[in-house]
Amino acid sequence: QVQLVESGGGLVQAGGSLRLSCVASGSFLSINAMGWYRQAPGNQRELVAIVTSDGRTKYADSVKGRFTISRDNAKNTVYLQLNSLKPEDTAVYSCNAGVKTTWYSGFRDYWGQGTQVTVSS
């Protein structure tokens, strides 16, 4: 069983910062890409940022220059630093990881439960 547990969400004023963390735990062989997605009420879930196992990153245009994704492979953890937050960044942020659990299986997507980020104006 693989679990992803996020932390670090909360309420912050516009212009403020938050740091989200997501730890993968359980029995698995390796983790491929790890990423953050968000979903605001009434909107579809969207990719915020993703980082591969070798450190390549990709960001949504709306967060480029403000958010930074990083990962610590030794700790099976991915981080998202959110700076210069705007009210439109308000959403539930969920962690995603591609995890290989056995030698004969491919990578499978796992999701965390989500953490609320609320930015007040």
Number of helices: 0
Class per helix and strand makeup = mainly beta
Cα end-to-end separation: 40 Å
Mean pLDDT: 96
Whole-angstrom Rg: 14 Å
Spans of at least 5 consecutive residues with low confidence: none
Shape: elongated
Number of strands: 11
Helix content: under 10%
Order of SSEs: EEEEEEEEEEE
Please outline the major beta sheet: 7 strands, mixed
Q: Roughly what fraction of the amino acids lie in strands?
A: over 45%
Q: Can you tell me about this structure?
A:
There is one protein chain. With 121 residues, the chain is mostly beta strands. It is built from no helices and 11 strands. Strands 2, 4, 5, 6, 9, 10 and 11 form a 7-stranded mixed beta sheet that branches. A 4-stranded antiparallel beta sheet has the order 1-3-8-7, with no helix packed on it. It starts with a strand and ends with a strand.
Quick description:
This protein has 121 residues and is an all-beta fold.
Blueprint of the fold:
Layout: E1 2-7, E2 10-13, E3 18-26, E4 30-39, E5 46-51, E6 57-59, E7 67-72, E8 77-82, E9 91-100, E10 108-111, E11 115-120
Parallel strand pairs: 2-11
Antiparallel strand pairs: 1-3, 3-8, 4-5, 4-9, 5-6, 7-8, 9-10, 9-11
